[in-house]
Design brief:
Blueprint (H helix, E strand, L loop, with lengths): L8 E6 L5 E6 L4 E5 H6 L4 H4 L17 E7 L3 E6 L7 E3 H9 L1 H14 L10
Antiparallel strand pairs: 1-2, 2-3, 4-5, 5-6
Length: 125
């Protein structure tokens, strides 16, 4: 990730329900990013792999919550989810692109789930 993005966050706020991270940037844009969306688009090697061919579709995260937001230097945050996933470092530029491209990314994710016969819902116990 680029440590010196073109835009900088002016506010990061985890909503009380822990299901939405609101990020405002210095260009005036503000994005409400659902926890599920952030979890399935984690920049971690677990999700992204080490090449585009290794990227994994992550099912069953409809009800995931963010339990902690940890600052990483001055360029990113590490999000800790209630499923204990915590290895993704979300740079400012990546958070901005997730907000800007939310509709396209979300539809791609839904299409991947459908193609692999997966669900947003956690498996029944």
């Amino acid at each position: 990730m680029n440590p010196s993005p073109d835009v900088w966050p002016t506010e990061l706020r985890l909503n009380k329900d822990r299901r939405t991270l609101t990020v405002s940037f210095d260009d005036g844009r503000r994005f409400d990013l659902p926890a599920e969306y952030l979890r399935v688009n984690s920049p971690s090697a677990e999700v992204r792999g080490h090449s585009p061919d290794e990227r994994k579709t992550v099912p069953g995260k409809r009800s995931v919550e963010i339990i902690e937001v940890l600052q990483v230097g001055n360029y990113a945050v590490r999000l800790v989810f209630d499923d204990m996933h915590s290895t993704g470092i979300f740079g400012w530029d990546y958070l901005y692109s997730l907000g800007r491209d939310h509709a396209v990314n979300w539809q791609k994710y839904l299409d991947e789930l459908a193609a692999q016969n997966m669900s947003r819902d956690p498996p029944a116990r």
